[in-house]
Amino acid sequence: MTVIRVWAPYAKEVQVILDGTSYPMLSTRHGWWMLDSPLAGHGSDYAFVLDGSGPLPDPRSPWQPYGVHGFSRMLDHSLFSWTDDRWQAPPLSSAVIYELHTGTFSPQGTFQGVAQKLDHLVDLGITHIELMPVNSFSGTHGWGYDGVGLFAPHEPYGGPAGLKELVDECHARGIAVILDVVYNHLGPEGNYLDRFGPYFTNRYSSPWGNAVNLDGPGSDEVRRFFIENALMWLKDYHMDVLRLDAVHAIIDTSSVHFLEELSQEVEMLQARTGRHLALIAESNLNNPRIVQPREIGGYGIDAQWNDDFHHALHTVLTGEKNGYYGDFGTLSDLAQAMEEIFVYSGRYSAFRGRKHGRPVRGVSGNKFLAYLQNHDQIGNRARGERLNHLVDTGRFMLGSALVFASACIPMIFQGEEWAASSPFQYFTDHQDEELGKAVVTGRREEFAAFGWDPGDIPDPQDPATFERSKPLWEELEHEPHTSVLAWYKGLIRLRRELPVLKDGSLSQILISYHEEEQWLAMNRGPVMVVCNFSRHSRRIGIYDGQKREVLLTSRSGVVYREDSITLPGETAAILLQS
Amino acid sequence: MTVIRVWAPYAKEVQVILDGTSYPMLSTRHGWWMLDSPLAGHGSDYAFVLDGSGPLPDPRSPWQPYGVHGFSRMLDHSLFSWTDDRWQAPPLSSAVIYELHTGTFSPQGTFQGVAQKLDHLVDLGITHIELMPVNSFSGTHGWGYDGVGLFAPHEPYGGPAGLKELVDECHARGIAVILDVVYNHLGPEGNYLDRFGPYFTNRYSSPWGNAVNLDGPGSDEVRRFFIENALMWLKDYHMDVLRLDAVHAIIDTSSVHFLEELSQEVEMLQARTGRHLALIAESNLNNPRIVQPREIGGYGIDAQWNDDFHHALHTVLTGEKNGYYGDFGTLSDLAQAMEEIFVYSGRYSAFRGRKHGRPVRGVSGNKFLAYLQNHDQIGNRARGERLNHLVDTGRFMLGSALVFASACIPMIFQGEEWAASSPFQYFTDHQDEELGKAVVTGRREEFAAFGWDPGDIPDPQDPATFERSKPLWEELEHEPHTSVLAWYKGLIRLRRELPVLKDGSLSQILISYHEEEQWLAMNRGPVMVVCNFSRHSRRIGIYDGQKREVLLTSRSGVVYREDSITLPGETAAILLQS
Fold first, then answer.
1. Looking at the structure, do residues B337 and B447 belong to the same domain, yes or no?
2. How far does CA B481 lie from the centroid of its chain?
3. Does ipTM exceed 0.90?
4. Residues of chain B numbered 244-263 and touching chain A (CB < 8 Å)
5. What's the number of domains chain A is made of?
6. Is A198's pLDDT higher than 90?
7. Whether residue A209 has pLDDT greater than 80
8. Which chain B residues touch A289 with a CB distance below 8 Å?
């Protein structure tokens, strides 16, 4: 006997079509409809008809074998045989995160394809992979942020079973799994939620249209929809961590913010199961409240992305000044990001046209992620260029030293570890022709404002754009990729072996820099990182009487004496007190 | 030499018309325009022309002698001779607040008229008057929430000089002044702000249209506009407290909430001047964050209105079930409001269609206001009926006992102290004919939904509606008004004389009630308040062995014995341990 349930508070009449036959559902409390059916079970196809309109897929469908517009399929999670009983995820403080996109990471573009690359990731020293959204979205390939079947793993990736197998395999290999989930909007195609209930509100707008209704009439169930989605990934798919997309676009003025409620629910699940669970937010608010404990008015999220660190480092490396990069560009900004997390902690931002942020005080660096690249910073460029397409390999390697020596949790993006030659471009596979055209036109217009010729902007709907974004694994065998990989392995090993690099302590960090000479030296307890951003050799004086050994250098030619270190142009060195 | 300044970041050219002559202004930083003029000074009339369009009144005009559309007039605040050097406002914890509307409170409808009634208020025992908004709004009379000249006291009330004289006189008589300020929207008529700059945003909506832009591009100056408005009232008009209208409609997702910034600025002014300054918020969020200290993530507002207390008490007294009153109605709700402040502290609200609020923990009752009536609860009714028009005088008096015995700061509304026979209706004086008609139609349609006949709804634009809302002071000489006044004086005296009533301690409160028998007894340390809401005499057992004396009863016939108190129907008694 299986109970079919759906929340449809607007409907006067709801039918479920089950394996081809229509059955009336029973209205119960608070807009929920139910049917106890002896015919339904794992594998049954079903859909709902609301007041004669439909069939519509289940908003909480666990499986969409026919795509986002098609029938839903029932799924019995208990049928999967997990082998990870003794798995315990490492704490975020010791994490090295690897962000990847299932559709492009492997040649197959599936969960199984990802699993086949785990040797590489284990060898690299990764502790966590972060999967870009795997919820069901329209078409075959896409970034995943246009998800509409939030409870159903994308069928072309391998569906529910494929995802479970991947997570189980990761755990067997000692790798934790982070899943990217999108709770700030739903995709434009295949989104039937507003037919069912008040999932959206026009009281607030988001960059993607109407905002999700988290504080208006009917919002209790909308909040449960997202919270139970989060709990499902953690419970039924054994995810270790969720990464919450763009929480700044989650508008909730009620007395318990959605993020606070979510973090409390995850903490309760953690307490019940004894597993290490965590939440990571993407936030551009520069508001420490996100990661502060609930007891002092925070939302209790475990960590958040820190774009300020990225922008400060990226602009120093590239000299770029476009858009938000105009707010950054000095070593002083970079030093502030390393020492204080937010560069904008109350300062006027020309890009935002207002003062932005507030200081992080008394919060560990382990509450923030540092990265040289991520899917957005690459893929939201006109042509999806990686950093190593913009600067020399040496200069690119220099940047990564600061990521791994920072007080924050380091994250890299697929292929970064070998300076992949492939771009990561914006690609979509919208089935609605009008929408597909609008996406192409919109993107070309967006970049025309920055002086781009439309013809130079890859067409997101063109399958070649997707194909082009797959890393070329064969290049791993060749220079300079082999050297870059060795450098990343060295940095990750250092982080694993030196506890001070993982203690998150910001107060231990002491930075010297010289804007004109373009060098920066950071002391973190016994560790010293020296970076020469200029193209010229620099001799940097060290006058503290400490003896040090050179642990790693991004290229040869570094000369260390007791009172100075001389670095060739565009070189980083990491030293340890001996 | 006077400096004329205006923020007009959109304009390419700004002129000021000064006493009839036009002068070009100089563009300075961040969209500010300036002119140093030897001709300008106190009393000079001026207006701005932006890119040839105007003349427009100054957004920060200190004086609008010709109404909201007319020229602004310069004002030198230093010319007023204050006599309140030694004034220090009493703390909010000992406050008894009297809300009044300048246009109707006295026959004259002016600040001077209010001053002439101070004898009455002193005699009553009031510590603070709260003036409904006195900013400039369109027309002669209105509630004031449609203000557009936020820095200019309404000319028909007596303008800037009249307001200062009133405040000075209040201070001379030992009365502190609270001013109601509206920072969530501007009125629909005479609002030229969006011609000057990005004061509004369409990213959020408010019940009154576009929301104020507190977190988008250009919002720094918009925030300063409101914050400097608040500081002006405190500094230049010697206001003691500001009451912030409907803060739930102030949407700000930036990392420092507008209310937090405002409370910090007021605290700094307090520190500089040594004066007791405070902020009171109207909030329907049931979120303790509003009044929690900034150190633990709160906004640091000193106190907030508590509508839950009002609704719980009002419904028990009237049996009304319309609209939001449907969420209340039991003695259990009333007891919760007395003991825990919020009735909705996470419970499902049928009116809101969602769970609402969070518990108040570790916050003093003195952070909340309790009231039997206020301008909204009277005036937003179809016909503006006061509570004493809905229930017998005795039942009305019963209700006020709980207001003054509560752990919260008591507030009454003009005329309440004598159960005035006059209503307080919704009145406007919009000059724009279309707008005037829309207000009338809108109000009639709103109440038609509750079954009202349009003809029974007073016309807000009809001057008679305004006149009808003036209390009839002569009725003070007659019964039952004289007795009601004596009862209020008694309650206020008790609050003054018994420190326990002002300690704000919620943990001291112990309430018994009986839903069927309709009585409620509250112990607050040595004080006991017993209320019989039924129409029948009730004998209520008291079994704690304490000896008590009866301090006050709302009518005669109360019989107290050591182990019981017998109250006639609809009667309250206040007892003290002897």
1. no
2. 24
3. yes
4. 248, 251, 253-256
5. 3
6. yes
7. no
8. 255, 297
